[in-house]
Amino acid sequence: MKRQFVRYPPEGRMVLEDVQPDNGPRYCSHCDFKSAARHIAETDPRTCKCTCHVVDGAALFRDIESNIRRHFYLQETWQYRILSLYVLQCKIAKGLPAVFYVGLGGTKGSGKTSLQAHIVRLARGHVYSNVSIAAFARRMNHGDNICIDEIDESRGKDYDVIRDALLRDGYRANGPKYERWDYKGNAPVAFSVYGPKVFGYRGGLEDALQSRTFPIPSVKPLAGGEEYVFLNLWPEDDGLPDRLDEWGRTTLAKHPPGTLKALVTETGFRAKLRQSVAEVGANRETELSTIALLVAEVAGIEIVEDLRAANEAAKSVGDPEALEHLRIAVRSLVRRAREKGDIGPDGTVRLRQRDVKENVDGYRVQGKQRPFSDRQLAKWRRDLGVNDNMLKHPKNKTTWYIPKSLADAIMSSEDEDEANSLTPVES
């Protein structure tokens, strides 16, 4: 006995059918017509014991992973498996106390947008693009999964405000709703922003967002990349959306919130959690891994090794593009200061923080990315090597005092074409 999706003419619709090679009795005695599809749609899985409602979570997970592998190149096995787990999470998010996000990092042309579109196609989610607040409020329901491309690119205040609310407050089921006064309609607008998010970014992740996200780098394959191009011109879902919908319905019915809470307290679950994270406690890894393990447990999946790899990888995630933007800006200003002889007797270079920020923000705006906040600038300043002890505040003007050795190190990796990439602000 096996179950498969069959296309029936003339409508060309896909239906889930129990197939017996010998045309013997059907697996489900409740079903008439040519498939179990109508019976599934018209019965309640909480009370109906019909085997039509059974979708094997582990088998479904393997099929999702196989589908993603066929369409996209990723460097590590755990990356395919975390993405597949995310797709399963999308179908039961309404029953979870919180969700994890997936962030696809990489430069332009690395396939982030295509991968996001494929994930949201399988999970039947929403793509948050240039839509009005009213339109998005009508579409967004509690627990819906969302795809957001290029979160570090500014697209105007109205767009940015909702996007930031989706990411900031949308990972907890009991989190605040997005509320705003609609001046055109002269009425308040409020809607839930809770639900799984898959998003792309070229820069990095701020600390608050990183604590909710499993980052996965998207990269171009070294060879044979044209096959992925061809496949994604005509992407195939392998009937997964329908199977996912049914698995989600039956799983939510079988595992109400109370049983999930009890599952977390079990000894076996705690043991898996300890294996998944470096240190169990009130930290990012524990919360993210708890939710991921919950999804895996109800689906019957072993995911411990993959979670450990994902958590290890998340620790090393930096912001290479944002840090490089700052490095380029500082190089330009250091070079200018040295050309003008505006350095101390020991070679110390003095840079006003305002000049640094104006230069790096100008560079980011050219690339349609958001300027640094003060917190972000402080983070990347430290990562560049300019620590708080190198700051002074003459006449309330924050100034970086960069020692000669650090300035030399910052200048040492300058590209040949970089000298004219920025125009330093005149002091």
Question: What best-fitting shape do the alpha-carbon axes yield?
Answer: globular
- Give the strand order, joined by hyphens, for the main sheet: 4-5-8-3-9
- The span between the termini is 78 Å
Q: What kind of sheet is the major sheet?
A: 5 strands, parallel
Radius of gyration, in angstroms, nearest whole number: 26 Å
What is the CATH architecture descriptor of the largest domain? 3-Layer(aba) Sandwich
- How does the helix and strand content classify structurally? alpha/beta
CATH superfamily of the largest domain: P-loop containing nucleotide triphosphate hydrolases
- The average pLDDT score comes to 79
What count of structural domains? 3
What is the number of helical segments per DSSP (H or I, 4+ residues)? Answer: 17
Tally the beta strands: 12
Indicate the low-confidence ranges by residue numbers. Answer: 6-13, 19-29, 415-427
CATH C-level category of the largest domain: Alpha Beta
Helix content range of the residues, please? 40-55%
Question: In the CATH scheme, what's the topology name of the largest domain?
Answer: Rossmann fold
Order of helices and strands: EEHHHEHEHEHEEEHEHHHHHHHEHHEEH
Q: Report the sheet-strand fraction.
A: 5-15%
